[in-house]
Structure formats: structure tokens, C-alpha cells
Amino acid sequence: MPLMLPTIVRNLFGGPATRLYPFQVRDSFARARGHVEFDDNKCTLCGNCARRCPAAAIEINKEKKELTFFPARCIICEVCAEACRRDAITVEVKWRSPFYTKPVEVHQPKGKEKAS
User: Fold this and answer.
1) Domain CATH for 53
2) 67, part of any domain
3) pLDDT tens digit string along 1-27?
4) Is residue 12 in a domain?
5) What is the spatial distance between Cα 53 and Cα 57, in angstroms, rounded to a whole number?
6) CA end-to-end span of the chain, whole Å?
7) Which of 20, 33, 46, 88 lies at a 20 to 30 A Cα distance from 110?
8) Torsion, CA 30, CA 34, CA 36, CA 40, rounded to 10
9) How confident is the prediction for the chain on average, in pLDDT?
10) How far apart are CA 85 and CA 82, in angstroms?
């Protein structure tokens, strides 16, 4: 009992051990993995990101001129951003809000077509 007394007193008069989440949100730290963002103005549908993605979270349809992204598959490994030569893909440090159904993002890039 005498060994527990200092711990009991410290816990009674000390502050909370955790953050009060909805009111105190933790700031993201440098190099945190948040979520992937696409810049439709820079993308040329070259397909480097889709070929390099280990989770198959990106699909390119050149006939429809669409880039389809499946965020639920994405493991945020940043390989797609490294493979993009136009810097059309960035990894943000802010987390995406949780989702209850598997969303699909369809992008129609407006960048210049790749010269064939």
C-alpha cells in the first residue's frame, strides 16, 4: 500500500493522460502517411502510377480518359507519387476521414496528352 500512495496522489491531482479528442486534435507530424491526392491538371494518363502500385489501387482507362482510384485498397506507400514524372500525385500528411463503404474516385485529367 505505501508504494501505491504516490501514484494515487499523482493521478488524483494530475491532468488527463490522453487528449480530449474532439476538442484537441493531434497535429500531423512530418513524413506522416495521410492520403493520396491527384492533380488533374498535371496528369497525362501515362500509367506509370498504375503499373507501379503494389496494391492495384489505381486503374487507367485511356479510351475513356479516366484515372480510377480506390482509396480502400491504397496502402499509402508513396510508390505512385515517386513514379509520377509530372508530380501529379502527392501524399498529404493529413488523414482522410474514415469511410464505411468503399469509395471510388474517378478523375478525368485535363493535362496535355502524352506524345506518342
Assistant:
1) 3.30.70.3270
2) yes
3) 578 888 888 888 887 778 888 888 888
4) no
5) 7
6) 79
7) 33
8) -70
9) 88
10) 8
Q: What is the dihedral of CA 30, 33, 38, 42, to 10 degrees?
A: 40
The answer as to whether 7 is a domain residue is no
Range of the domain at 102: 32-107
The set of residues, in sequence order, having a beta carbon less than 8 Å from that of 65 and lying 6+ positions away, is 45, 108, 109
Q: Determine contact, residues 69/57, Cβ cutoff 8 Å.
A: yes
DSSP character at residue 96: P
Tell how far CA 86 is from the center of its chain.
19
The DSSP annotation for 6-61 comes to: HHHHHHHHS--SS--TTTSPPPPPTT---EEEE-TTT-----HHHHH-TT--EEEE
Assigned C-alpha cell, 86: 509530372
Q: Answer yes or no: is 80 within a domain.
A: yes
Domain count, the chain: 1
Q: What is the pLDDT of residue 113?
A: 56
